[in-house]
Design a protein that fits this description.
The protein is mainly beta. The protein contains one helix and 34 strands. It has one helix at 257-261, and strands at 34-40, 42-43, 51-55, 58-62, 68-74, 90-94, 97-101, 107-113, 122-124, 127-132, 135-139, 145-151, 153-154, 162-166, 169-173, 179-185, 187-188, 196-199, 204-207, 213-219, 221-226, 229-234, 237-241, 247-254, 269-274, 286-291, 296-302, 304-305, 313-317, 321-325, 331-337, 339-340, 347-352, 355-360.
């Protein structure tokens, strides 16, 4: 995905630190050493100081010291891989209903919501999108319904607005449930840096927060803006535009499931792919890194790579393993892991053999 979270899948994640912050991260003797030894059957990244872990097919939560904070007690279909804390609460399934626990493991909102582990409810900006039967609405942290369930699909709030689907069209609501941009798009994305990619008909363009089309629909795909640029696809290749819609990096990179999930610039660089596409993995070429002028700064040489986070990027080379490089392309953490995730708040999730742990930045 998105992230070298599960190499068998396409999800990848990108870091979120600004480019000029990368100099704050200095490689030390601790970098790449274990903060929490590999011992878990699976783990999720830390959120609000806790991480979901799987021990003997039961899920619980650990703190950043590796201590059990909430004992493993939840079944696979209760937590699964998507468990995380947000606004102090985490969604847990009991039977066929979802509720929320607090950081002590106590039930804070009784199980009453529909859904499954692929799309559990979660809080964002004080509200959680939940499903009642076939309709979605929003609750607050006390469990009180704030926006009645009336949407066919609903997403989390970001910068005070959320994308919702009514019938076959998508629009945007505020935290009172009022439409601030009427449902009119076949596809609508969250706002980033003041703009959102939308698909009113057959092509993607960008709107501002008033709903005005500021970059006319002309692209086959449009991603979020990050550090002033957004990836857009023309045919089966993608490049980058600025906020005026000007193409600043010519479409030339492979459009795959992997690239679509991690094409945001992070710390001034972005991972790009060159080579053939395979039906099984979505990509069979090599990955490298470009800067915001489109110049190749780290040549394509990796079989899998994530964007930079905290000054380092996770990379894999088939037959060798996964490790971390710096912005010169130098391997600073040896390719000794079976999986490796981007760093987040000084820790990164890794797998050694069939066990997961965390290493230090």
């Amino acid at each position: 995905m998105g992230r070298l979270i599960i190499i068998l899948f396409w999800v990848a994640a990108s870091g979120s630190a600004m480019a000029d912050e990368s100099s704050l991260y200095i490689t030390t003797t601790k970098t790449g050493t274990f903060a929490i030894e590999p011992q878990f059957d699976n783990v999720r990244e830390f959120s609000e100081g806790l991480a979901a872990v799987n021990i003997d097919k039961k899920w619980g939560f650990i703190d950043r010291a590796g201590r059990i904070a909430i004992k493993p007690q939840f079944n696979e279909n209760q937590v699964q891989y998507y468990a995380h804390f947000s606004d102090g609460l985490a969604a847990i399934s009991y039977g066929n209903k979802w509720g929320f626990i607090d950081k002590t493991g106590r039930i804070a909102i009784n199980p009453q919501f529909d859904g499954d582990y692929r799309s559990p409810p979660g809080f964002s900006e004080g509200l959680a999108v939940v499903r009642f039967g076939s309709k979605f609405g929003y609750i607050d942290k006390t469990g009180q319904t704030i926006i009645m369930p009336r949407f066919d699909v609903a997403r989390w709030f970001s910068d005070g607005i959320a994308v919702v689907t009514t019938g076959e069209k998508q629009g945007y609501i505020d935290k009172t449930g009022r439409f601030v941009i009427q449902p009119q798009f076949n596809v609508a994305s969250n706002f980033s840096e003041g703009l959102a990619g939308v698909k009113p008909d057959k092509k993607f363009g960008y709107i501002d927060r008033t709903g005005k089309m500021v970059i006319n629909p002309q692209f086959d795909y449009a991603s979020n803006f990050s550090e002033g640029l957004a990836a857009v696809a023309v045919g089966n290749k993608y490049g980058y535009i600025d906020k005026t819609g000007k193409m600043v990096i010519t479409p030339q990179f492979e459009t795959t499931m992997m690239t679509l999930s991690q094409n945001d610039f992070s710390e001034g660089l972005v991972v790009v792919q060159f080579g053939g596409v395979s039906r099984q993995s979505g990509f069979s070429g090599k990955s490298g890194y470009i800067d915001k002028t489109g110049e190749m700064v780290i040549n394509p040489q990796f079989d899998y790579a994530t964007n930079f986070s905290e000054g380092l990027a996770a990379v894999c080379i088939n037959g060798s393993g996964c490790g971390y490089i710096d912005k010169t392309g130098k391997i600073v953490v040896s390719l000794t892991f079976s999986e490796a995730d981007p760093f987040q708040d000084g820790l990164a999730r890794v797998r050694v053999g069939n066990k997961y742990g965390f290493i230090y930045r």
